[in-house]
């Protein structure tokens, strides 16, 4: 994923369109808020990420490169293992916490670079997962997270195929859900703002737009350079939820090589 992002950045730089600005749905609306991201680049030791009024705690990371073993990040508050204890060729795991001025608290556990069959999904998402990904979830480059808000027992879960989001960027959709009634859809960003309006990328994507279940854009995240977060929504609770999601997407690192 990181390689494709670098190639996209190079192509756009050569064409004279720097810095890259995502062309978002309804991006001309005045209420779209654009936030610079701090802390994404540089050393990962004691890393903290911030944008706008949001800031993560120190990010805890671990890399697993073995044939057997556990997740390396504590099991979520719901008591459900994130991965089955079968072969894990390699994986990146990380966790962080976040609070806001309204008293909301969240903890995020994330893992990437593993096969879909390793997942133990929430049964409440069964039908929704089938609708999005077919009868079975497949792929060897899955990014998955559990996000717990205010000590709730039931987490929000992200299921994202990094490879498919780049190779099939115009068609792919990722899923972020707590239940079949509470969910968001992630769509790869495949256009950037040019001198003559939006223009299509030659390949891949540079981030994700996030849509609610009514197909309305509520947020977006650019993954190029230092990163950038965009909010359409002004609802404090929704902003906090999606801020955690965007932070996790920004913190994911490509360890394929």
Automatic annotation (TrEMBL):
Q: Which PROSITE patterns match?
A: PROKAR_LIPOPROTEIN (PS51257)
Q: What is this protein called?
A: Lipoprotein
């Amino acid at each position: 994923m990181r390689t494709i992002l670098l190639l996209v950045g190079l192509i756009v730089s050569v064409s004279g369109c720097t810095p890259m600005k995502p062309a978002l749905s309804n991006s001309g609306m005045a209420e779209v808020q654009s936030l610079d991201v701090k802390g994404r680049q540089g050393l990962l030791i004691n890393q903290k990420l911030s944008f706008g009024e949001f800031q993560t705690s120190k990010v805890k990371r671990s890399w697993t490169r073995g044939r057997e073993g556990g997740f390396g990040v504590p099991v979520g508050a719901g008591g459900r293992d994130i991965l089955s204890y079968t072969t894990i060729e390699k994986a990146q795991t990380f966790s962080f916490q976040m609070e806001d001025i309204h008293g909301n608290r969240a903890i995020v556990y994330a893992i990437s670079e593993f096969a879909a069959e390793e997942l133990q999904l929430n049964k409440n998402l069964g039908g929704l997962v089938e609708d999005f990904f077919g009868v079975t979830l497949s792929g060897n480059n899955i990014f998955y997270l559990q996000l717990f808000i205010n000590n709730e027992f039931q987490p929000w879960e992200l299921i994202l195929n990094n490879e498919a989001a780049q190779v099939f960027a115009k068609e792919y959709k990722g899923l972020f859900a707590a239940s079949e009634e509470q969910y968001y859809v992630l769509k790869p960003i495949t256009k950037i703002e040019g001198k003559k309006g939006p223009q299509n990328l030659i390949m891949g994507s540079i981030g994700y737009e996030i849509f609610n279940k009514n197909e309305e854009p509520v947020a977006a995240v650019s993954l190029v350079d230092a990163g950038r977060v965009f909010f359409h929504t002004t609802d404090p609770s929704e902003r906090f939820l999606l801020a955690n999601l965007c932070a996790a997407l920004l913190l994911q690192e490509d360890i394929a090589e």
